[in-house]
Amino acid sequence: MSRTLEEVAAYIDKHSNALPSQSPQEQYEHFEMLAIAVLDSEFDNYPEGTLQDFLMDYLTTKRKQLSL
To answer: How many domains does one find in the chain?
Structure first.
């Protein structure tokens, strides 16, 4: 069963927020690690490039939010 892209973002947000307070760089690295894990496990559930493009945009947004 594949998740919607919004569910993928919510999953990453939920699991990254479960960590104790971190520096912005550490937070971003955790977002990135989770995004890679999702991509590795679910890439074949989406049309080619769709999940990867979404995750790259998601990480770009997170980087801006964290002022990195």
So the answer is: 1
